[in-house]
Each structure stands twice: as C-alpha cells, then as structure tokens.
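User: Assemble these into one structure.

Assistant: Restating your components, then the assembled model:
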Amino acid sequence: MSIGLPAHLAPLVVRRAFTAAQHTFGATLLGVGIMSILVMQGHHVDSNLWIAAVVMLPSFAMLFIADFDRSVLWALGYLLLGGIGIHVSTRILLTDGAQFEAGILLILTTFSVAILMVAGPAKGLVGALLWTLAGFAVAESSRQSARIALGLSPSLDIQIFLISIATLIVIPLISHVHRLHFTAQPGLHRALQNDQIAQLRSRLESRSAAIMHDTVLNHLATISNSPDGALSPKAIAELRKDIDTIINDDWLTEFDTGNISTSAPPWQHGALAGAIRECVAMGLDVRTTGDFSVAKRLSRECEVALSQAVKQCLVNVIRHAGVLEAEVGIYGSETEALVMVVDHGKGFDETETRPDRLGLRGSVKKRIQQVGGSVRIWSSPGAGTSIMIVVPCQATEIDPHVVDHDPNRSGI
Amino acid sequence: MGLSRKSRFPEPTRQQLDPISALGDRVLVLVLSLSAFGYSLIAAIRMVPEVSQPLLLVFALVATAIASLTVILASSQKFAPFSKLGHVCVHLFVIAALILMVLSQLGTDKTVDADFASVTLGMLLLAIGPYRPAVEISTAASVSALLLAFVAMVQASQVSSKVPVAIFALAALAPVAALGFASSRLSGRLVDYLKQWNRSLYQSFRETSGELSDEVVESVREERLRILESTALPLLHALSESGVVGPEDRARASAISDEIRKVMVAEAERTWLEVAVRDFGAAPERVDALVSDPKGAAAWMRNDERIALRALADAVIHDPAYVRRSFRVSIAVDGRECRGTMSAELVGAEQAVRFQLAPYLAVIRILFSDVEVKASKRALRIGFGYVRR
C-alpha cells in the first residue's frame, strides 16, 4: 500500500489518467475502423474505399502525439485532422461502400467516437467536459456536412449521441472524491510521519543501548569482577575515554573510525580492521582469512555496525569462551558481505542465555539488523561458537589491489 | 509503505496502493454496472421478436445481472481487495450470457448480437479499471474480444448479409477491446501516478525527518544521560579519578549494572505498538495492560501494515465517542501466522464502522488477511491476520 493521494490532488490525477484511457479508447476504435475499411476493400477490390482509411491515418498519428505531449495545439490538431478525415471518409464510404450498409455505419460511428475522445489538456472538470463537447461538435459537423454534400438529409447518429452523454457523465464520476477521503487521508499521513519518527527513535535507542553495553556495562562488569586495589593504567584510560564518549554531544551520531595507520594496505584501513586490532591489543590471537577488501564495498553505516558487532563477538570470546584464539573470515558476494567469527572455546546454549545478557542480542544482532543484515549463531557447550554476520554491500568492482591480494598470508 | 523495499503487490492496483481514494470509485462502479445491465436488458427486449427459446433469453439476462452484481460486490470495501477470480467471473458470465442469447434465437435469428455482449463487458471492464492490474485487464479483454469475435463470425455465417463476416467480428470485438484497453491504461496510469506521488511524498518525509532527527537524537541522548548520571557515571567518574576499586565499588557496580540491564531489556522487548499506544495518551495505566503481545509479534509487521494499524488505532482512540481506557490490542502467534485483535468501547460503533472508520478499515482490509469487523452499539472489535516475515 502507498500512502495514497490527498483529496485535493486525487480528482486531477484521476482525470489525467482517464485522459490517457480516452486516447487509448479512441486509438483502438480508429484502428478497428481502418481495419474494417481494408476488409471491405478486400471484398470490393475496384472501389476507392482505401482512401477513406488513408485519410484517417493522420488523425491516428496525431492522437499518439497528443497523448505523448499533452498540449492544446496537438489536441486542436487532432480535432482538425479528425474532422477532415471524417468528412472525407464519410463521403467515400457512403458512395463507394453503400452496399455494405450497416458495416459503413459502424465504421463512421467508430471514427466519430474516436474524435469524441480528444481529451485535451484541462485543469478543471469544466475544461474536460468542454473538450468532449468540442469532439462531438467536430465529429457531427464533419459527418453532417459530408451527408449534405452528397445530397443526403442530416441525421443524428443515436449511438454517438449516447456515447457523448455517457462520456460527459463518466468524467465527473471518475474524479469523484469520497467525503471521508478528506478526513482519513491526513490520518494516514500523520501515522506515516509518526511511524518514521518512532522508527528513528527506536534505531537511536538500539544504537545507544549497544554503545552503553559496550562501554558502561562492560566497565561495570570489569569493576564488579576485579580484585580490590588499583586499576591498571590501561583500564583507567579506557574508562576515561568511554566517559568522554558518553558525555560527548555527538556520541549517538558520530562513527568511531579508530586510529588506523594510513600507511597500511587499503584492505587494512577502516573500522573492521580497527576493531580486530583493538581485540588483538586485549590479548586475543585473531587469525584472519578471506577477502578483507570486501569491507571497502560496505556503506559507512554498515562498516561501523559490522566492526562494532565483530568487536563484541571477539570481546565475548575473551570473556566467556575460555580461549584466547579466534578466527575472523570475510567473504563477499555480488551484494552481500559475510563475516564469520569462529572460536573453539567452551561454547554455550543460546536458549539458556539469560534475557539480560545483552551482548549478542543488542550489540550484535540488533545492530546488524538495523543496517539490513542478519546474524546466525551456531554454538553448543564444549563445541565452540561460530557466528555468521551477513550485511548488504555494493556490487563488486574489479580492483587490482583485490586481485593481487592474498589475504591468507596477510595478518592485520 | 516504504518504497525502498520490494512492493508486496507484484502487480499493484489503485485499490491496493490507495484504498481510500478507491472508495470514491464506488459511484462510478454502480453507474457503469447498472448501465451495463440496462444496456443488455434493452438489447434483450429488442431481440424478443427473433427469440425461439424465451427461457434462454431470461437466463442470459440473469447471467448479465450476475456479472454486474459481481463487479458491484467485488469492488465494495467489505470484500476488498477485488480478486482475480471476481474479474474472471465477470468475463465468463458475460460470455455465457452471449451464448445463451444466441441459443435463444437458434434458427430464427436475423441479426448478430455479439456487440451487445461486447458493450456490456466493456462497460464492466471500465468499472474494474481501478481494482485490477493493467496487464491482467488487457489480457483478459483481448481473450474475451477474440471469443466474442468468434461467436459473431459463427452467428454471421447463419445470417444473410452483404457485409463481410470479418466486419461482424470486428464490430463484436471493438467495444470490449477499446474499453478493455482503456481500462487497462487507466489502471496503469493511476498506479504510475501513485508511485510518483509516493516517491515525492517519501522524499519530503525524509527531508522533514532529517530536520526532526536532531530533536530525536537530542531527546534520546538526554534520556540516556539522565539514567547514567543518576547511576553509573558518578561511580565511573570517581573510579577514573581514584583508580582504586574497593568492595563497596564492586557491589555498587553490580547493582547499577543490574538496574541498567533491566531498563535495557524492557526497552528491547517493547514493540512499536506499545510505544504507539503509550504515545496516543490512551494509557494512563501501564502500557502492557492495553497491549498483549507476549512474543513481540507487532515487530513482525511490514511498514505498511504498521502504519495502517497505527492510523486505525489513532482514529479509534481520538474518536469523540471513544470510552477512555477501553482500548485493547492482542496478538496471538501460531507458527508464522499472527492473529491480532483490536477492541474498544465506542459509543455508536456500528455507525463509526460505516462512516468515520470506513476509510481506515478499507486500508486494513487491503493489507491484512481475514479481517473481521464486529460492531455493536457500544463495542468495536477488529480481527486481522498477517504472516511473520
């Protein structure tokens, strides 16, 4: 569902769509009329009926132009060419095709109805109705003048008259707006706007929760588990850094790019490499595999979310796995980047994880889901843990650095 | 409703994209459907002198009436959305009517009647335009036009006339083809315009959201700092200054950690529906007393479902006849199937369903499956289904 057209715009849009429908209606009838003449020509080879078809071709072409470029000029051109066409074809058909009786009348009716469907550009309802009346006037005057020229008495084609009336009724009806539209549409617009704000708020709350988990809760956990006595200088520095981050006005919106040497090869730049370096600095032995140049195809938002999620996975290894070794592999497809974080530690049963353990839930899963990615975890007690993170990325570009790079021989 | 994601409707229609505007099409549908039947009635009366089997003519009229009725019912808000089956039935009934009419004149007919069916079907197709996809309408119209042309050729071969048989065929197919293609173009154009409108609307919303985002960021940041300043920050500050941890610090850190975790877990488990209901101001008591969604299934709704439900809830809660604190929403989950129920006390709920809530219910019926609306003098109950994605 879309949010729908506002009540003031709906009639205008529907009338424009109906104009296109009228042109299609007219073009189909012109086509059928011309085909009918050609069929009659086939049955009456010596006649000049084909001329009646040829004189309608310019109006047929003009209708396509008027449909493609809605202007008064083309609409008037269609009326002019159509009027001439109907006059000439009426004279030819009523003289050369008299033996086909009803067939001739049918063709003349289709041509007249096609001219009725001129549907020139009009901003208001009255304008749209006037174009139909103009079409009727041109079609009838052309037909009647041809009859008079042939010495026949003018006669009203009841079908053309009824179709004109029907068109004049349908035009206002099709742009009718239900009165409830005026009250309900603003309600939907308001709901959309409120929903967007709510979504934005929810994203920010999740992001802040993940940051709080990675900083404040981590520090609180470290403090509650630390022995009495002095904290290490490194822990104090980390604590001060994180307090500054939280107090900083931009902590919810800015992305931490990490302090990464720009002299490193291109694939070693960026937040993901920085996150792995930080964990290496914490004492974790991280083996990297795969193609780290994939990270270059990630959007900034994805890259930051991925690096923070990978960091949380590695921090979990340090804290809970009982081993100090892990492997990070990154692989790319046309539209996705896949990161595997694997350890051979003690593993865990995800269903038995307490609901207030927010690491995997908030800092990994929710973070990745917010950038359109997904997370899968395979773990069982005693069998280690494998976490697969998939995030969307841009399509593959052929980069000579990537082709030359052998990631298995390059550590971060 | 987001345009960035793949549309849920592979071939969208105006009714699906803009159910509220489609409500306005009802008058046209009624006029065209009744005119179609009226036209066939006049045609039948004119055929009477040639009829050898009057009963078959009556059946033909009944078939036309059913076709018209199908369009009227299938396009109504109550049976929304207009189904493909309904569309096919319209074609079948009109073609059946034509065949019955031809059979009713077997051996006695002097005219070819296929054009009657063609005009009738053409008018009904024009009425269907806002409700079915463009490709489906033009394909079905083409098939029916060929069938009608075939019947006309068969009938024309039995009638003595100087007019070539092919002309009868063209006369038979012209109205249904012209009106069918016109209806198809109408459908396609309406959908295109709606998509264009949505693109510009979402663009303007994005711009507005950009302006609002700073306010939201600030509000979330302040909320977080308020929690931290009264709990963790004083302790962390003190420890970063002293650099020494004592037993009291450890106990306090553990207590603060538990407190923050509780807040974060509650926040993580809260769905948009609970937040929305709270924001409506409908819940002076605890939110979970109004929203029963133990599995957080509200989070599994699509954007458009979420927005439609939010708009309906907003309309119900802000209706002057709404009885305070009576709003309830529950969502039950069975595998991937989710079943929601929204209820409220609303004075004159029967009227509300027919009038002020009708546009919202039209949207709900398009987006959700198995929508059930029960309204009595004072109570409103709306059931809806959706699938977990």
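Chain A touches chain B through 100 residues (CB under 8 Å).
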